[in-house]
Amino acid sequence: MADDDIDEDAPIFAIAAAAELAAMHAQTLRQYDRLGLVVPGRTQGGSRRYSLRHIRQLREVARMSAEGISLPAIARILELENEVAGLRREVRDLEQRLRDEMQQRPGARVFAAGATGAVVTLRHGARVRRATEVVLYRRPSDPPASPQPTAEEALQQRIGD
């Protein structure tokens, strides 16, 4: 079985094993569960079951706590990290859908968002004015007219203007 086949969300560790893996006392895990910091799965009988992802979260909570971050602040950080992870998954899914759509429509037109938010159709080979339009997709086969700055470079250019 390859490492890629391991389900990091499978609730497989009892509280004693999870506590040992996280280098914590089992009572600390119970407290974190009550506070909503790391909430494990439950068996039908109500016993806690921790996954590999939970173990990583427990270690991260311990690290932040050792750095002096309060438990409510840690809870907020974990909440935001979970939100970011969900948004990254959503972006990946949308990018894949866009790639799939572009493969199904090889002659499709390219669109950009104008400065006012309006959708602008671009002619094949048209150059985008960076100050007013954002390119959402460029076919890999189209060579860029000039080196395109990264999003960070473009932002720095805009701030510097």
UniProtKB/TrEMBL annotation:
Q: Which UniProt keywords apply?
A: Coiled coil, DNA-binding, Stress response
- Region listing for Disordered, in residue ranges: 138-161
- InterPro entries, per database record: DNA-bd_dom_put_sf, MerR-type_HTH_dom, MerR_fam
Please give one Pfam family short name: MerR_1
Quote the Gene3D superfamilies the UniProt record gives: 1.10.1660.10
Identify the residues that the record assigns to the HTH merR-type domain, covering every copy: 15-80
The parts of the chain that form a coiled coil are 77-104
| Protein name per UniProt | Heat shock protein transcriptional repressor HspR
